[in-house]
Amino acid sequence: MRKVGKFMMFIALTLIASFLVLIGISHVNHQAKLKKENEKFIPTGVLIEVNDHKIHVYTEGTGKETLVFLSGSGTSSPTLDFKSLYSLLSDTHQIAVVERAGYGFSEITDSQRDIDTILSETREALFQAGAEGPFILLPHSMSGIEALHWAQIYPDEVKAIIGLDMAVPVVYEQMKINMPLVRLGKLVADIGATRWFPALSQSDAMRYGTLTEDEKELYEVTFYRRTATQNMLNEVIEIKNNAKRVQESLPVEIPMLLFVSNGQGTGLDKSNWVGFQKDFVADQSNSKLIELNCSHYVHNIESIQIAEDSTRFIEMMNNR
């Protein structure tokens, strides 16, 4: 029995040692590739100094309204993620994509991710980039909480919200967040294990959107730098408290057009995800819901319909 026990111990230690060696090799390989990819990681917009770190803001187009795109949780490259949609709108509108700390070309920090800090940084970066309100906000997923808070705190700055399958506060009351799994995801990204599975870097923007080959390559380079960053982790830690604050100050008195997916990719089934959106719209005085039969990144999959419906919505709102 002692021999069996020693043999099993030997096997266990060998496996652990092999695993640690594999992690070490992965980390060294990851750092080498990051260094090599530096020449491709070039901001497409401007870097704004906010709270002692740099926030990336991308703008294009002209028009009397500024459409502000706000990304969902964990989207590696918001500027490229929204491109398929904003490229259809920038002929008639000013476009601005604000990449939060830890996203895209913005710097990674360990700063607090309470809703007031997030909104303060977004507004400061936007204003320093030369954008002028009032704004039409286009939030995806988790940034729906930021957009609603913006409308609550600074109603004169927000003309309308066009939700791109945005999350409403009640979602986070029901959602169970597996923090150990989230932290494991950060570890996997930090050691470069995401490079073992190339399919992970293939976002919906790359699969369904209108990105060029060069843009797809830049998205992939960004993915390996901006996946499960410390800021993203801190956002997840704070999201339930942030959503609760926003919920307590509902409803908001601005026009809203919400595009909602079939729930795939949200962590909830269709009946719950769409049901939460319908209940939310029913409690608002000037809101409309459009259901789309596609997964969570609606702005990549149904960009043409969303652009057309959004344009009509804005025109009707301006003609009132």
UniProtKB/TrEMBL annotation:
Q: Which superkingdom is the protein from?
A: Bacteria
Residue spans making up a coiled coil are none
> Which InterPro entries does UniProt cross-reference here?
AB_hydrolase_fold (IPR029058), AB_hydrolase_sf (IPR050266)
The GO cellular component terms are:
membrane
Which PANTHER family does this one have?
HYDROLASE, PUTATIVE (AFU_ORTHOLOGUE AFUA_2G14860)-RELATED (PTHR43798:SF33), MONOACYLGLYCEROL LIPASE (PTHR43798)
Q: What is this protein called?
A: Pimeloyl-ACP methyl ester carboxylesterase
Source species: Sporosarcina newyorkensis
